[in-house]
Amino acid sequence: MESYPETLKTRLHDEAYEYRRDAFLAFLKSPVRDYKESPTVKDYVEITDTELQEMLYGEMKESAEALEFSESANIKINNEEITVSDELLKQGVTVTTMVDALKTQPELVKKYVFPKLGKERIEYLINSAWRNGLFINIPDNAKVSVRAHTIASASASFASKTVIIYGRESKVRFTDTYSTSGQGKGIQGKNIYFFGGESSRFDYLYLQDKGEEVRDITFVKQHLERFAEFQFFHINHGSSKVLFVDESQQYGPGSSFRVYGVNFSTRDQKMDIRDSSCQEGEESNADIQVRGVVTGKSSTIHRGNIDLEEKAMKATGFYDSKILLLSKDGFANSKPGLEIKNANTRSKHGSAISNVDEEQIFYLRSRGIGDQVARGMVTAGFVGSMIEKANDEDFTRKVYQYAESLGANAFLATN
Amino acid sequence: MEVEYSKDAEMEKLLEDLKNSNVKKEDWEFHDNYKPVYSTGKGLNRKVVEEISEIKKEPDWMRRFRLKALEIFESKPVPTWGPDLSGIDWENTNYYNRPDEVNSTKWEDVPDEIKETFNKLGVPEMEQKYLAGSVAQYDSEGVYHSLKKVWEDKGVVFMDLDSALREHPDLVKDYFCKAVPATDNKFAALNGAVWSGGSFLYVPKGVQIDMPLQTYFRMNGEATGQFEHTIVVADEGSKVHYIEGCTAPRYDRNSLHSAIVEIYAKKNAHARYTSVQNWSKSVYNMPTKRAWVDENAKMEWVGGSLGSKVTMLYPSSYLRGPYATTHNLNVSLAGPGTVKDTGAKALHLAPHTSSRIIAKSISIEDGKAIYRGLLRMNKGAEHSKSHVQCDALLINDNSTSFTYPHDEIYEPTATFGHEATVGRIGTEELTYLRSRGLSEDEASSMIVLGFLDDVMKEIPMEFAVEMNRLIKLEMGKLGAVG
Questions:
Q1: Could you give the number of structural domains in chain B?
Q2: Minimum CA–CA partner of A325 in chain B
Q3: Residue B1 falls within a domain, yes or no?
Q4: Which pLDDT score, from 0 to 100, does residue B6 have?
Q5: What angle do CA A172, A176, A180 make, to 5 degrees?
Q6: What pTM value is reported for the model?
Q7: Which among A190, A189, A291, A187 has a CA at the least distance from the CA of A240?
Q8: A152 near A188, Cβ under 8 Å?
């Protein structure tokens, strides 16, 4: 990292120089996470400084190949060239790269990008080192459906930052898919920040299905104004290491945050999935539900926190984590937290970890269904109820496919 | 004779007590002017540790153990992941105060002032009525111990640990610091270096004691430390209920309580440990409590953390044998200006083990209640089950509550569930009760008691009454609730 300040002054010297520098200073001051509370495990998904350096100095190489989903994408990104569909342009949606936005939309960048340095060590670093990413501005009252698909080379390491601003009373549905092409062990970090205007509604469908050896780091932050609603469906399936952090910043009274997350880990994958709410707005609410399926030698940890700040009168928060632990060599952990600083609130969390219920298997088998298929069905049922709420055929099909195959394969591996 | 009581009658009595109690802080926080006969003075170093060992005329292995523990204590940093511990004055704390040369089995031999203190706390009265045996500790040393003859005849050993080390050295050596080694944490190391007093209870194979045994700890001096070490061994097929109570006067300078409790529940044994902690608000309470639970044994932790300035307490059960069970029930009361960082740990190390943890906390004014717990199911803990429930009640607008559970499951056949809620007394509940003719005070009392019901019904009546009086005291006028 010693030569990074020099890189900042040269390769990364642009309109965001001061922001990048402050974010890097915050990174240097921020301590390495150390989970002393656990007697056995220091960190669940350890991202070393060497890996961070790879990310810092890497360049994004996008693949020219288009895989599934890309046909329907109305924002396509290839070698920093962005194609936006007419339908979006008609609604007044502007899409640029983050680098271009620094020059073309300085006022918005100053208002939304510069004040937000982040909260965590690696998030700071991504905010300092990004070279790629999109800047999307959706006007007030717009009703748009966006489908984006980013396909990067699996060997590429890079940091990217995406900022999505959507105005008052806008209604947005955004399907965002991340995959890789080819083989490689790239380390890919991204910060995705949302800024929701008053009474806006955003449905965000996120799918990460990168190559087996890629390491993926993602921070998603939702900044919600009065009565803004955010519904988040996230699926993590690919990569060897996944550090996924999702935290709402609910300033607005009456803002609403709903999360439905599903994480599939297999082989020797390691997943650290954190979903939290930070609520300042009166009568704001958060409802976070996360499911995990663990097979092979993989590990999944669900971390969650409901933070009801002093101003959050009559706010409510709920966090629920359930993990199906399907293999003898895998492990599943959950660390749900509550930080309640106002008594006039209600909050709750629950977590459960177990194998497939044998009574359900018995029921299906008595209807003539084979053991393997039955286990796939139960696993699919376990996650399906979450994802069907997204009301997206492609998305749901994909999740069922992952679940059925993991559930059935877990059975094959143990018999 | 076992005391019989019905739950309804108990609740009625508790409610009545809560309504009519004129309890004052001075009931517990008084201090007498008794001066210790010996003190090592302020601060801690190798010389102090050697001095303590020499005064006690300990065997050489214990002296060496203490010195090793001191090295470990000095090498470990003060934990920073929990509450602020910067108020502990390590330099000016008095680590050993010997109250008297006497440790008697008769109350008459105890110095008058100390006896008077224990009388005020109701200890001799309780012993007569409800207990099979009793130990009383004043500052660093036990001053009184007794055990009813019927149990003595059956081979039960119950005395302070210093006496046990002299009279049953091999038995003590077998268990001392096995479950809680000095390397466990900084405060366990401190206890290893300067431990004094505490109880040793050994229940032989097959002996089932039907009345509880109790130790009462009293800390009298200012800026002192109490470092008792308690060992309870329930041998195969035995049954025992051990109770601890603790109080101290309030001073301007902080005191430190860093105890170790080790419980060994052997095959088919049933051990229950109840403690009601009511240290004053100048005490940092940092005990380490742990049980080894063998095959088909049952360990029950029942606790009330009511007093102290800061408490960090996580009673742990290591379920080492198949079908071992642990239950952990805890009530924490975070009064104004205090922090209760409490919780529980259960480690499932064998098949078919089960655990149930229920933690309830109440935060009053700016009191901060924190639940921090660990539940671990190791690989091989097949078909084990666990349920964790932690609920928090916030009384005032500025009350806060934090929950940090850690659940680690390495065994696919295990079943685990966890739930937690935080809220305050609902206006609907109050309105309902008031519409039935109860005053607001009565309604609030009833809701608070209902919230604590799971734990209260497991606590012996005398302690439950004491706990309710303390809760009432902390909450001031219950009419303010809701």
A1: 1
A2: B412
A3: no
A4: 52
A5: 170
A6: 0.81
A7: A187
A8: yes
